[in-house]
Each structure stands twice: as structure tokens, then as C-alpha cells.
Known about the structure:
The structure is a single chain. This protein is an alpha/beta fold. It folds into 4 domains: 3-126, HprK N-terminal domain-like (Udp-n-acetylmuramoylalanyl-d-glutamate--2,6- Diaminopimelate Ligase, Chain: A, domain 1, 3-Layer(aba) Sandwich), CATH 3.40.1390; 142-239, no CATH class; 274-399, Alpha-Beta Plaits, CATH 3.30.70.270; 407-495, PucR C-terminal helix-turn-helix domain (Arc Repressor Mutant, subunit A), CATH 1.10.10. The protein is built from 16 helices and 14 strands. The protein has helices at 63-73, 91-100, 113-128, 138-149, 154-165, 221-259, 262-271, 292-303, 328-343, 365-380, 398-403, 407-428, 432-441, 446-453, 457-471, 478-495, and strands spanning 15-18, 30-33, 47-51, 78-82, 104-107, 171-174, 179-182, 194-198, 209-213, 281-286, 310-316, 319-324, 353-356, 389-391. Helix 10 links the parallel strand 13 and strand 14. It is elongated and about 105 Å long. The two termini are 55 Å apart. The relative contact order is 0.06.
Amino acid sequence: MLVEQVLELSDLGVAPMWAPRRALRRTVTGVTTVDVGNPASYLSPGEIVLTGLAWWQPQHAESVGGFVAAARAAGTVALIAGEGVHGRIPEELVEACRRHGLPLFSVPCGTTFRAIVDRIYLRLWSDMRASDSPALPSTVMDELWEAITSAAPLDELLATAVERLGLPPLELASASGRVIAASGPGAADATHPTRLGVGPAPRSPFDGWFLRTGRVVSRAQQPVLDELATLLSRAFTTHRALLDEQATATAELLAALEAEDAQTISATMHELDLGADDKLTPLVVRIPGAPDTWAVDAVHELLAGTPGRFVVCANRSGEAIGLTTAPTHRLTDTVTQRLATIRTLLAEDPALAVGIGPSADTSTLTTALARAQYAADAAEQRPPTSTRVCTASEMTNLSALLEGLPTAVSQAFQTAVIGPIVDYDAEKGAQLLETLQSFLNNDGSWTRTSAAMHLHVNTIHYRIERIEALTGRRVLDPQGRLDLYAALTLHQRGAA
Length: 496
């Protein structure tokens, strides 16, 4: 069930007071009624909260801010407020819900909360019991369902399933094999792995949860395992909805950073549970020609093993951006280790490139992100068989800086600077390019170049003069030599 389906309760008089479209896509896992000023200890993630506002008094109007903040922090997905006590929904409550991104609905005094609760639970249970003959005993189903709706740790849920259903040890793993949760040690150690998809079909090679065991699954256990995977799909759907919501907020944060909108920056940082003083490290992943979701899911898999909090969003075609509180050196180590596994999921075309920028606060994060994107440009130019991770800290010399040039720009520069030499060598076999390279490698020394090429020094002089005539650049002029060196570096990289 999604929050937007609360709109179907209009026959009970339920009406939206503030309901932005993206917040209506949140997944509902339960419903509860609370009428205390501080509801934090009574709530579980994913719930719709009903309140009669008995705790609110007009002379203490500001108290709604604390109530809404506590509800949102506990994972509440929507608030339904009754008009029975005060006759109307206070404007202060509407504003607080808007500030904290919590959808708000009103219900007239003629509608009982019991009617609303029954309708919501009817919808939740109809979603759960879609199969005609459940393989799980109803008592176990109820126990596991309660664990999911209360956001119990998935390790505990799997352990309960194994114990109560007599299943072999289980793991919940990502597409790359990263263990998300396990019923206990040794869940996938044996040589007969069984793997079941959890939730909707994966939207990319990096997406999805998989329920797996290393033991042989009997015919009697298979339908039980299938239904357990279906049950876990509720947790996966909630997880994906949360990631999509975070992605929207992350995109808003990046836009606010670009616009230097301090108010929106502060609000979105708070919404993303990032501290105002947190330093964030930007990471850019590119998978050319792939749907945007591929890069987004790849970033999630790369960052899942890093310390600290992270958020991700799509940026442009085939590119995704991650922001993490992990420091650059820790991030680089983890990403480099994980990339080998991630790339195996792109068997046909492993052209995945990663750029990592420096850690920065919000005042300099836009610059740090630009550096991460240029590092990704450089990583894209590296051979597909190499580890295509580049950090902004590597950009400390001309050779590294040139690595990030787009192919078309690189080729145009080479053609303009040393194209005449390449053409002359192709026609005459004069080895001018080789001579120029040796001359630059030997710091412009005529005698060392002569010795290195086993040629008379006069021959070296003649060839260099010919190079200068063809290129219009003097090799002893610093600017001319720099142009020639840059063009040669790009030429050699393209030939590698």
C-alpha cells in the first residue's frame, strides 16, 4: 500500500491538507493512533499516524512542531488528524507538516478512527494474502509480518523464519553478493546454492535483493521459501521507496547548491539526515549508453560497504552522483576493492568509470563535485581492462590533467599540433615523431638525444628544425615545448 491510496478513503471524509506528489509514493507498513505530545516511543517506521489532537492547545500552538518532528524522525509516512476536538485542523500543524515533508490528511468528526484503521489494515492484508493457499502457517506469517512492519532487523527476521519454519540457514544478499542480512553464520557456505529473487524484477544488473542458502532445499521447503521471499518483498519495496525519496531530495540539494540557496540547502540536508557541518565526499559513476537507474544502483552497491551515511541521485544520461560522509581515502580504498565485483555484473561491456572528489562542506561542495566529474572523465579514458577509478587528488601534473580531456578534444589538439609530423612520417618514414619524443625525454639535450638514437648530432639538429617548420613551434621555447609535450602525451595514450 502507498500513501496515495489514503485518497481512496474520501467516502469516509478523509481529505488532503498537504500532500506533495513524491511523498504520496511512500510505502505504508501499518497504522497506529497516538494522542500524546511526544509520540516517538509509540511509533514504528512506515506507519500512518492518526491523532485526534487532544494533546494540542491553541495557547501552545508551537507544540505541533515537536510532534511532527518526532513523528517524521520515527519514520511516519503520513498523518491523519481528526477535527472532532478543535473543529478544524490548525494552520500551525499544516505548516509543520510542510516543513518536515509529512503528508497531512483531515477527517471529520463524524468518522471514527476505527473505520479508517479497519480500511487501511484491510488494504494491507489484501496485499499480503494475494495467494490462494499460503504455505506459511498463519501464526508464523503474522509474526514475520509484524517484524517487517515494525522495521525489526532483517537478521532477526531471517533467524525467526529459520527457527519457526525449519528452513536451512538463510542470507539476504544484493545482486553483487554483498550480504545484507543473515540468519546466522554459514548460511551460504555449502556447494548447493539456492537463490530466489525478492520483490519486483531488478531494474538494473546491480539492483535487487536475493534470498539464498548454501544447503539443499527439499520439495516441501521450496514453497515455504518462495512465500518467505514474497513476504520479504514488502521490506524491499519500502527500502526502494526510501531510496527513491532520498534521490529526489538529493537532486534538490544539488540544485540548491548550484543556486547558492542557503535555506533550501539547510532544509534538504536536514531531510537527508545530514548534519549542517558534515563534510561530504562526492562520487561520480558513469555507464555510457545505459539507463540512468544502472548508474544509480551501481553507486548504491559501491557505497554500501563504506563507513558513514550516503545519498545518491541520477544526474544526467548514464551518470549518477553519490555524496557520502566517508573521507576520501577510505572511500577510494573501498570503491577500488568493490569495483572488481561490480564490473562482473556488466559482463558484455564493463565500461564503468568512477571519479572521486575531495571532502568538502556545503560552501565548496559544488567545486568538489566538478572535480569528481573531471576525475570521472579521466577514468573513462583509461583502458576498459584497467581499474577505472580516478580521484581528484591524482590531478597534480599535466599528464593526469590531460587524461580527463574528452576524446574529440584530445584528437583535435593532436591533429592541430603534431598532425603535420605524423603525416610527414607516414609519407617519408622520417621518424620525426620518435626524434621529438627522445629530444623531450632528454630535456632538450642534443648530445643525449644523439646518443639515445645512435645518430649524429647534426641529424638531430636537422630533424628538430624540420619539426619546427612543420608545427610552427620552437622546441626551445617553453610554450612551444609544452604544446608538443602535451600532444605527444595524448598521442601515446591513444595508441596504447
